[in-house]
Amino acid sequence: MLIWFLPVFLVLLMVGLPVFFGLLAAPGILLWLNGQERDITLLYRNVYNGMDSFPLMAIPFFMLAGELMNRGGITLRLVEFSQALMGHLRGGLAHVNVLSSMLFAGLSGSAVADTSALGSMLIPAMEKQGYTRKFAAAITAASSVIGPIIPPSGIMIIYAYVMGESVAALFLAGIVPGVMVGIGLMVMIKVLADKYDFPVASRKSTWGERGQASLKAFFPLMTPVIIMGGILGGIFTPTEAAAVAVAYALIIGLFVLRTLKVGDIPDVLNRAGITSAVVLLLVGAAMAFKTVVSLSYAPQILADFILSLSENPLILLFLINILLFIVGMFLDAGPAIIILGPILGPIFLDLGVDPIHFAIIMSVNLTIGLATPPMGLVLFVAASVSGEKVETISKAILPFLAVEIAVIFLVTYFPAFSMTIPRLTGFAN
Description:
Blueprint: H1 5-14, H2 19-33, H3 37-51, H4 58-71, H5 74-86, H6 92-108, H7 111-128, H8 133-144, H9 154-163, H10 167-173, H11 175-196, H12 207-232, H13 238-256, H14 265-295, H15 298-309, H16 313-330, H17 333-350, H18 355-368, H19 377-386, H20 390-396, H21 398-413, H22 416-424
Helix pairs in contact: 1-2, 2-3, 2-14, 3-14, 4-13, 4-14, 5-6, 5-12, 6-7, 6-8, 6-11, 7-8, 7-19, 8-19, 8-20, 9-17, 10-22, 11-21, 12-13, 14-17, 15-17, 16-18, 16-21, 17-18, 18-21
Organism: Roseibium hamelinense
Function: Part of the tripartite ATP-independent periplasmic (TRAP) transport system.
Pfam families: DctM (PF06808)
């Protein structure tokens, strides 16, 4: 009977129950109906146990670092740097949007923060230059999914925590796929710009102007270098790296750039605390949900079903990508990874798929789900920032989603894209 927990969960989501409560209510109801009241106690105890983890502390620290940098005007410096490099191209501001997302990804690792910070700045600017509001919101949402792919990434920290993988290896494996998404979006912008005659954002910057923009962006761009350098050099753990990122953001904002005021810090802490609480509550609920998954023998049942379809890893990877894409339409990436990772990971490990490679397939796929209708979170954030309807943005984003889906399959069937850097640095076999 417990196997019905997933259909019940999906029904609860469809009637509008928040994901956190659905993750606890669906298994709780079935345990009660099954006469397993003791396991209900275990279920809710695991909400706290799921959050009580040193590696997971990296998530609120990275979110706080992102908030500090955004409030300190660092986002504006990244946009100016991007515009100096690409503003002269046709569709320049759309290219700037994508490049800014790639740079911002190295600071916060959050798609929501990216959409909110860059969208509030670039969507009005793009509209003034003649872009439709729906297009501006769509490219902002599409490019924001790069945030959790390029390190640091909260989603990859969650995957490493659940599956016992190396955070550093996952961070390294995400670099090339993240860049591929960015380049793919720029190619699509070039195609659309030629077809619809998009405007040029600005004249071509001189090398001196580019140099000045680079100097302004120097300290923000050093953030991912410090984070990854410290982790790869064995100087600090990913959690300690996140704390270092917060300290660095404070020093840069308060004393170097002097764009952050002491009076701003309480509001920054409040915003970061609320966002972190949402993520960690979802992680805790998903870990409790995972308890019932194991009690129901769902992993074994699903594994037998998947293997009955085919024993060819290439066909199974195609089918799993379709499954993950559909899941990403309805469920946030963090809970989806916690629920499905322990089920799907061992299946593909037995089929000879490298665990780091599968981690990237799953993380990239579910991350792109953040921009996929009907429940993509960044679509709602983009709608809120732009004032455009979610349905309208969903139609405008389709060409960019096609590019991102193509990247998913490239990463899936050509492991070198994700595995080369971890292998060269000794973090993967």
